[in-house]
Amino acid sequence: MKKTILILTAITAIALTACNSNNSPKDNNMGMNHDTMPMPMQQNTQPDKDVKMVAITFTSVDPAVASYIKSLVTDYLAVKNALVNSNETEAAAASGKMYEAMKSFDKSLLTAEQKKVYDDIESDLKEHAEHISKSKIDHQREHFATMSKDMYDMVKAFGAGMTLYHDHCPMYSDGSMWLSETKDIKNPFYGDKMMNCGSVEEMFK
Fold first, then answer.
1. Given this model, what pLDDT does residue 114 score?
2. Cα(114)–Cα(160) distance, integer angstroms
């Protein structure tokens, strides 16, 4: 019995260290850690001036493109917030909106250079949006981890039309990121199991 208690104590200590660590392992594309333990609540008090700002690649885009990207970001954030609340139905609906928007986007609004960057991101982003729209929540979260990297690349290229924070969770799939409209950490990979596990890495403005 004593040996079992010692093992459980050690596992808890390792989990706490990983969640609260400032070191951010590189993201992996897919996968889940199902057997993690609840973490203590923590709030991000880091001032905005201490968060690294991300430079946007294309500072001049067609207004219709800017509007389209902003709508994608808005739908992405709806997916994120649905996963924070562990709401599979809302995540599927918001992701379905993303998928339909990408299907109808007029690429002729892009310059040749912008189109090359957009095309490199679009097919993967569209695939994950479609999967999330048709999947159960565990699988939604797996695809959301990769969708988030695609959205990061999209926002870095074209901007978001709003302030966004690049957050990082060290626990999910050996390290996964997401974008958030709020600075407070609300983890979409674990919901209320580990709501505040993560840290702010960068900022788009």
1. 98
2. 15
Do residues 32 and 173 touch, judged by C-beta distance below 8 A?
A: yes
Dihedral angle over CA of 129, 61, 201, 49, nearest 10? -150
Within 10 angstroms of residue 43's Cβ, the number of other Cβ atoms is 9
CA distance 27 to 139: 17
The pTM of the full predicted model, rounded to 2 decimals, is 0.79
| 3-state secondary structure labels for all residues of 19-45 | HHCCCCCCCCCCCCCCCCCCCCCCCCC
Q: How many CA atoms lie within 13 A of 135 on its CB side?
A: 17
131 phi and psi angles, rounded to 5 deg: -60, -45
- For 61-106, write each residue's pLDDT tens digit: 999 999 999 999 999 999 999 999 999 999 999 999 999 999 999 9
Q: Which of 72, 53, 64 is nearest to 148 (CA)?
A: 72
Query: What structural domains and CATH numbers belong to the chain?
Result: 47-204 (1.20.120)
CA distance 43 to 131: 32
